[in-house]
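Most newcomers find our protein records easier to grasp once they have seen one. Nothing more is needed to start thinking about how sequence determines fold. Here is such a record, shown just as it appears in the course material:
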Amino acid sequence: MIYPIVKYGNSVLSRVGDPVTSFDKKLEKLVADMWETMYAANGVGLAAPQIGVSMKICVIDISSGENPESKLVLVNPSIRSQEGKQKGEEGCLSLPHFRANTPRPETITVQAQDLKGKQVTLKGQGLLARAFAHEIDHLNGILYIKYIGMLKRESIKRQVRRKVKAGTW
């Protein structure tokens, strides 16, 4: 099932997600729906709050579906370490049509659980590190615009307010 993507301004995007405690068929179905939703939206990552579910789950595939081994499911993830710096253009399915140069760590090590509840540790560099940071931020109620310059951030917020007022958001 493809869910509608929740857009900036919805309160679920600014809340810390609830930890997952049940690793069952319901969770597997939700994750399968998240994959379907993310690919339909041409994303490389999707966090549960972006489909209105306030839980600590995200899916990431920086290959955009080209490499099945690249598919990652992170349940209850946390960043354990980060190194270096990178700055690159970043967008978000919850802020469609907006992009901004966003600083992120170059390398990130994440600890999470898989779909069965098993603890996993993953290390990502470059785009994968960016995706880890971006999606884990979503699970903690943070959007990438927090990290960009004030002028660019305010410009995006102003444009969103205009779209809301016009009924196009």
